[in-house]
């Protein structure tokens, strides 16, 4: 049976085991839940991305010189590492689990922009924090007595610091922000509640693009290595190392 079309492009049956597994692997993410949670069809779209990359690789790869394919392979490996590490870093910060009414955990994507009323509340608390700090007599007294303690020499030489000097009763702006986000998420039972829908959509789109880029670069590596294996079996080396 002829496994090549007239223009030299390989048919699907001639791809081999590893390219076929590469196309089917993302579908397992419907169960494994490694890829982006949105869109729902992300595993299927990732499979189509790998399929398209392999089609292009087998369509044009045989026309390229060994040195060109070597450089493309190295670039694909570096690209895969960049996309995979970026996806991992972003998913750690922006992907959480939400309990559904059925008692199951659902992966959701957080946003980067808070809703307007929550943002106003946080800014008001930060402003009240600054006002309270300026009116705190213990803090002002501590700033005056940092270097000496009523003529007894530098602080720490025979003097005992007060509890008011060691403690900080005020929260920072970041602590206020984190506390408000946690309170809204705990009250609603939804970790995405504090964030705007637009920012969630932007993060979800970015996550999917990183995942698709990692899948495409990995598929390119698999395609080039498959071509190398075929040509090596025919006695023609594919990958070369130019000096």
What are the key terms here?
single chain, 243 residues, mainly alpha, 9 helices, 60% helix
Inertia-based shape: elongated
| Main sheet makeup | 2 strands, antiparallel
Beta-strand residue fraction: under 5%
Tally the structural domains: 2
Strand order of the largest sheet: 1-2
Q: State the low-pLDDT regions, or none.
A: 1-10, 141-145, 147-169, 238-243
Radius of gyration: 29 Å
Please report the total strand number as a whole number: 2
Secondary-structure element order, as H and E?
HHHHEEHHHHH
The N- and C-terminal alpha carbons lie at a distance of 40 Å
Q: Tally the helices: what do you get? A: 9
Question: What percent of the residues sit in helical stretches (DSSP H or I)?
Answer: 55-70%
Mean pLDDT: 80
What class would the helix/strand composition place it in?
A: mainly alpha
Task: Write up what this structure looks like.
- The protein is elongated, with a radius of gyration of 29 Å.
- It contains nine helices and two strands.
- It has 243 residues and is mainly alpha-helical.
- The protein has two domains: 12-110 and 195-233, no CATH class; 116-188, no CATH class.
- The protein has a two-stranded antiparallel ribbon with strand order 1-2.
- The protein has helices at residues 17-24, 29-32, 42-60, 66-94, 116-135, 137-144, 163-166, 173-188, 197-233, and strands at 95-99, 105-109.
- The longest helix has 37 residues, at 197-233.
């Amino acid at each position: 049976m002829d496994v090549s079309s007239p223009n030299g492009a390989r048919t699907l049956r001639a791809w081999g085991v590893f390219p076929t597994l590469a196309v089917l692997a993302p579908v397992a993410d419907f169960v494994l839940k490694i890829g982006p949670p949105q869109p729902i069809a992300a595993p299927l779209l990732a499979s189509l991305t790998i399929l398209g990359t392999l089609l292009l690789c087998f369509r044009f790869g045989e026309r390229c010189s060994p040195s060109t394919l070597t450089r493309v392979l190295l670039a694909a490996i570096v690209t895969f590492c960049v996309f995979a590490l970026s996806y991992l870093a972003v998913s750690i910060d922006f992907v959480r689990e939400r309990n559904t009414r059925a008692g199951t955990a659902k992966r959701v994507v957080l946003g980067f922009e808070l809703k307007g009323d929550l943002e106003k509340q946080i800014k008001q608390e930060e402003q009240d924090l600054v006002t309270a700090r300026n009116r705190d007599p213990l803090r002002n007294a501590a700033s005056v007595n940092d270097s000496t303690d009523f003529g007894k020499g530098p602080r720490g030489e025979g003097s005992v610091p007060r509890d008011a000097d060691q403690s900080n009763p005020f929260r920072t702006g970041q602590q206020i922000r984190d506390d408000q986000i946690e309170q809204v998420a705990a009250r609603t039972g939804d970790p995405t509640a504090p964030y705007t829908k637009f920012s969630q959509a932007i993060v979800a789109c970015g996550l999917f693009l990183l995942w698709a880029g990692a899948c495409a670069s990995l598929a390119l590596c698999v395609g080039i290595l498959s071509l190398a294996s075929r040509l090596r079996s025919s006695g023609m080396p594919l990958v070369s190392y130019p000096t």
